[in-house]
Design a protein that fits this description.
- By secondary structure, the chain is an alpha/beta fold.
- The protein folds into 2 domains: 7-138 and 167-234, Spore Coat Polysaccharide Biosynthesis Protein SpsA, Chain A (Alpha-Beta Complex), CATH 3.90.550.10; 236-304.
- It has 11 helices and 11 strands.
- The protein has helices at 17-33, 51-58, 73-83, 100-112, 140-146, 151-165, 186-192, 204-214, 239-257, 260-283, 287-302, and strands at 7-13, 38-45, 63-67, 88-92, 96-97, 116-124, 134-135, 172-173, 176-177, 181-185, 218-229.
- The strands form 3 sheets. The chain has a 5-stranded mixed beta sheet, sandwiched between helices. Strands 5, 6, 8 and 11 form a 4-stranded mixed beta sheet that branches. Strands 7-9 form a two-stranded antiparallel ribbon.
């Protein structure tokens, strides 16, 4: 067997043929510019649009794992991590465009900082404006900033401030990084384990980073480097399903990691936000969104994530 690659890139597809060509073309071009070997593993969650066949035919250098059902993002990532051979392991969403400098920079940082347990770079929209590539610990306050009716306004203000003050390239410790681009050393994965498979999608990255921090490592955001992330191309295919999954996973995270007071504050914030959304969606006569709001309210009022369950397909 050949020597281990320095880096393994793990990506998960579900009906992502439109992303696959762009993703693997960018990754191949980036890997060609790097001074070390890169292994690529793609896990296909039973796509019905020919994604797996496209990958196998056009990108034979990719190790492809085909699932017969949609097992969810976290379990599929774990499948890739289990067979990865790299010393560094990168989760990279299929709607991202890999950049050689960003991959090399994250690798160098983790290799030179042994107490760093996870690293991620800046995520940019296609127009160059920043996304929220890192977050504070999930809480009622973080919820209002990131997911509520007020969050689009707050995000717009953040983008404008970014344009005015310029880019801060200093590395900083953060609570958690977006799983769209999240790199960990193999030694950390071996100690902490992979993603919690009970999260079908969403909050698995926050949970992983929390467990990495609890193990004594730091989680670091490296804005000196960036990649383009065409945010949410998979989520847009089933918006209400992903909406409910987001809130189900957030409640699961709160029940797992928060004390009674913090969990109650988070539940109250979500219930308040849903009650504000209700009349807006009613006036718009938006039945699917009203149904989602009702399901989220049931989950958070009764503190029961199972009330948000859906069949994955």
């Amino acid at each position: 067997m050949s020597a281990r690659p320095l880096l393994t890139v793990v990506t998960v597809f579900w009906n992502g043929a439109e992303d696959a060509v762009r993703f693997f073309t960018a990754l191949h071009e980036a890997a060609e510019r790097l001074p070390f070997r890169v292994e690529t593993i793609a896990v296909d969650n039973a796509s019905s649009d020919g994604t797996a066949d496209l990958i196998a035919q056009r990108f034979p250098w990719v190790r492809l794992i085909r699932n017969t059902e949609n097992v969810g993002f976290a379990p599929a990532c774990n499948q890739g991590l289990e067979v990865a051979r790299g010393h560094l392991l990168l989760l990279l969403n299929p709607d991202c465009e890999a950049d050689a400098e960003a991959l090399a920079g994250m690798c160098r940082y983790l290799m030179s900082h042994p107490r760093a347990g996870a690293a991620g770079c800046a995520l940019l929209h296609g127009d160059g404006l920043p996304q929220n590539s890192w977050h504070d610990e999930p809480s009622w306050c973080a919820y209002w900033a990131g997911h509520s009716l007020a969050s689009p306004l707050l995000l717009t203000i953040t983008k404008r401030l970014h344009c005015l003050r310029g880019r801060d390239c200093r590395a900083r410790r953060v609570d958690w990084l977006m799983g769209a681009c999240l790199m960990v050393p193999r030694t950390v994965w071996e100690k902490v384990g992979g993603l919690d498979p009970t999260y079908f999608m969403y909050s698995e990255d926050a949970d992983w980073c929390r467990r990495i921090r609890d193990a004594g490592y730091t989680v670091v955001h490296l804005p000196r480097w960036s990649i383009v992330h065409h945010h949410g191309t998979t989520a847009r295919r089933r918006p209400e399903f992903t909406f409910r999954r987001l809130y189900r996973s957030l409640l699961m995270y709160g029940r797992k990691h928060h004390g009674p007071v913090a969990l109650l504050a988070l539940r109250a914030a979500v219930v308040t936000d849903m009650l504000l959304r209700w009349p807006i969606y009613a006036v718009q006569n938006d039945g699917p969104r009203l149904d989602s709001v009702r399901r989220v309210l049931a989950m958070y009022v009764h503190n029961d994530p199972s009330l948000g369950n859906d069949a994955p397909d």
